[in-house]
From TrEMBL:
It comes from Pragia fontium DSM 5563 = ATCC 49100. GO terms for biological process: anaerobic electron transport chain. It comes from the Bacteria. The chain crosses the membrane at residues 6-29, 41-60, 80-99, 106-126, 146-163, 168-186, 201-223, 230-254. This is Anaerobic dimethyl sulfoxide reductase subunit C (DMSO reductase anchor subunit). One of its GO terms (molecular function) is dimethyl sulfoxide reductase activity. Pfam families: DmsC (PF04976). The keyword Transport does not apply. Signal peptide: none annotated. One of its GO terms (cellular component) is dimethyl sulfoxide reductase complex. The keyword Transmembrane helix applies. Keywords: Membrane, Transmembrane, Transmembrane helix. InterPro entries: DmsC (IPR007059).
Length: 258
């Protein structure tokens, strides 16, 4: 699958934005401490770095990457690349300054800026795929599933990093909305392209199962103060795999009518 690098890039990038957002909210509400904030931000950095590294493979020839910036302001893809770079730079700045006690103010500024730029980055991804030329993508479901990954993937990873309550609430909300919207989405793509949609059943089934695991993870995180790190990691991994599976199905629905 040629678009597989984009699957990882978009899902991991959106999850990283979610972690940054939820960890900061949790810290501001005094539901988590500074160490948990650092841990969550570090996890977001790792996910974003992996997503970027894999996403670069989609370019084919890396040295041609600067050419994609020529359409900045006009091209959604160029905007996405610039915002991605800005978000990652601010993530790095946040982590760097957070470990320097004398520069905690800089860390806070970078943290807030990273969240704002990150949310615009997620929006820019949606603009790349909200295309009238691709019938199965020309729907509000495209926007919805991208934003839900921020809640679902970000929430699960936030719980793993120790941001339990805020992460679990976001994860629960994301899972419930996703499960409610799924039948309508499947019905939409089934009418749009019956042949392609029929080939995505397994991917959607995997996501549904993983969402159920995520909901269980959220409930446990809300009920119990402590939990097995290994079990949380397993559940968070399952949730991310579910989002990756759904994104594979999304890219598999790419078709331009002749």
């Amino acid at each position: 699958m040629h678009e597989l690098p984009l699957v990882f890039f978009t899902v991991l990038g959106q999850s990283a934005v979610g972690i940054f957002l939820l960890a900061f909210i949790s810290y501001q509400l005094k539901l988590s401490d500074g160490e948990q904030l650092k841990r969550a931000n570090l996890l977001a950095f790792v996910l974003m770095a992996i997503g970027l590294a894999i996403g670069i493979l989609h370019l084919g020839q890396i040295f041609r990457a600067p050419n994609m910036l020529a359409g900045l302001g006009r091209s959604p893809m160029s905007n996405e690349i610039v915002l991605c770079g800005a978000f990652f730079a601010l993530v790095c700045g946040t982590i760097f300054f957070s470990y320097l006690k004398k520069h905690s103010g800089f860390a806070r500024v970078c943290n807030v800026a990273a969240i704002l730029v990150g949310l615009v980055f997620v929006w820019s991804i949606i603009q790349v795929y909200q295309l009238k030329t691709v019938a199965s993508w020309d729907s509000l479901h495209t926007s919805l599933q991208m934003w839900l990954t921020v809640l679902v993937g970000g929430g699960a990873c936030a719980v793993l990093a120790g941001v339990r309550k805020t992460g679990a609430i976001a994860l629960s909300i994301g899972v419930v909305i996703s499960l409610i919207a799924k039948p309508d989405y499947i019905d939409f793509v089934s009418h749009t392209d019956p042949m392609l949609s029929s080939q995505q059943t397994l991917f959607w089934a995997v996501q549904t199962f993983c969402l159920a695991v995520g909901l269980l993870m959220a409930v446990v995180a809300l009920v119990k103060r402590e939990g097995s790190s290994a079990l949380l990691a397993l559940c968070a991994g399952a949730v991310v795999i579910g989002e990756l599976s759904a994104r594979i199905a999304f890219y598999n629905l790419w078709a331009i009518p002749m």
